[in-house]
Write a structure and sequence with these properties.
By secondary structure, the chain is an alpha/beta fold. It has helices spanning 3-13, 43-55, 67-72, 135-143, 155-164, 174-180, 208-223, 226-233; strands spanning 19-24, 59-64, 81-85, 94-96, 101-109, 127-131, 148-152, 169-173, 188-189, 195-204, 240-241. It folds into two domains: 3-101 and 198-241, Periplasmic binding protein-like II (D-Maltodextrin-Binding Protein, domain 2, 3-Layer(aba) Sandwich), CATH 3.40.190; 104-195, Periplasmic binding protein-like II (D-Maltodextrin-Binding Protein, domain 2).
């Protein structure tokens, strides 16, 4: 990239002179909150720091409690780029890269449940606890025909609602459900996944040059092993590097 092209990208992605990187603190697989936003660690902060390094600007992390809040913050201009699940419902305001990694999402059912497979879940009378405005909530909202979603504010709250209200199903990221199932004698995680959350980098849709730069960055980060090394460094179990985007 020429110096002029890089300057144009820098002007779009870091108009304040620093790159403000939006993080989703509820995604414990990819972000670990520190004493301050600046102390955040994990796969997403590592990649955010690398984007800033390539742009030649300082990085400023802007943490949000959940994916919904992070996505909504694009309207107020709170961040320049953000690490979150690429979802069609968000694409009218956020230009996404291809996924840099994938996280499988599936279901947990309580002891004694008659539900044996993913196909058994979407039935009348089945209530599914879900973290509201998460990427898998958005997926299920447009995919389910019969089951009822019971939304709660965050992963912990969705687990609590599932237990307290004796719901039939808990939806979640498989790496998280693996820990939840250990707390519930007789509970089971269903085989397979109903979707794989496509974790991507987004920027406001008006930033075309910046979006192109980010798309190229993600493909290079996957091909070079940068993403894989970050996953290994932070012990992000249950996630995988996303396939290269089609040409």
């Amino acid at each position: 990239m020429s110096s002029n092209d890089l300057a144009a990208v820098r002007a779009e992605l870091a108009p304040s002179g620093r790159l403000r990187v939006g993080l989703n603190y509820s995604n414990f697989l990819l972000v670990k909150k520190g004493a301050t936003d600046a102390d955040a660690t994990g796969v997403a902060p590592d990649l955010g720091r690398e984007v800033a390094r390539r742009l030649g600007v300082p990085v400023q992390f802007v943490g949000h409690p959940g994916a919904g809040e992070l996505a909504e913050a694009v309207s107020s201009g709170a961040w320049d780029i953000a690490f979150l699940g690429a979802e069609p419902a968000r694409a009218n305001r956020i230009a996404f890269t291809a996924a840099y990694l994938e996280i499988p999402a599936t279901y947990l059912v309580p002891a004694g449940s008659s539900i044996q497979s993913l196909a058994d879940v979407d039935r009348t009378g089945i209530r599914i606890a879900v973290s509201e405005r998460s990427a898998y909530d958005l997926f299920l909202s447009r995919s389910l025909k019969h089951a009822q979603l019971v939304r709660a504010p965050g992963l912990d709250a969705s687990y609590d609602v599932f237990v307290a209200q004796k719901l039939e199903v808990l939806a979640g990221l498989k790496p998280r459900l693996v820990t939840d199932v250990e707390k519930l004698p007789g509970a089971r995680i269903l085989e397979g996944s109903f979707t794989a959350i496509q974790q991507a980098i987004g920027t406001p849709v008006a930033r075309a040059a910046g979006a192109k730069f980010l798309r190229q960055f993600v493909e290079e980060a996957k091909a070079s092993g940068l993403v894989a090394k970050a996953i290994e460094r932070h012990g992000a179990r249950g996630v995988s590097v996303a396939p290269m985007a089609s040409a």
